[in-house]
Amino acid sequence: MAYLVVTLAIMAMLNMIEAETNQAQFRKLVLLISIIFSSPIYAENNGLIFTPEGQAFNSVISGVTEDLVGEIAFKVVVLNRSNVATDIEKHIETHSPKIIVLVGNNALKLYSQYQNSKPNNVFPPSVAVAALHVDRYLASIKNSIGVRYEIPAVTSIVNMRSVISSPIKRVGVVHRAWMTSIVEENSKDCRLEGVELVSVSIPNKDTNLKGKLKSALISLINNNVDAIWMLNDNALLNSNMIRAAWLPALGKAKLPVIAGIESIVSLGELNLASFAATPDHYGLGLQAASIIEEIMERKWQVGSKNIEQPISVKNAVNTSVLNRKEIKYDQNKLSMMNRVFQ
Amino acid sequence: MKWKFVAVLCIFTVLSVPAVAKNIYIFSPVDVQARFFQQQVAMACPSFSMVVFGRGTDFRAQLMRSPPDAIIAPFPTIDRSFGFKMIVRGMQDGSTKGNSLLVSLDNVFDVSQINNKKIGVVDILGRGRMNEFVSELLQADMKLRRVSKNSDLLRLLTFGLVDAVLVSKNQYENMKSISSLNLVATKLDVEVGLVGVASANASINADLISCIEGFNSELNEVIGVDQWRIL
Question: What is the rounded distance in angstroms from the CA atom of residue A229 to the CA atom of residue A268?
Answer without folding.
Answer: 17
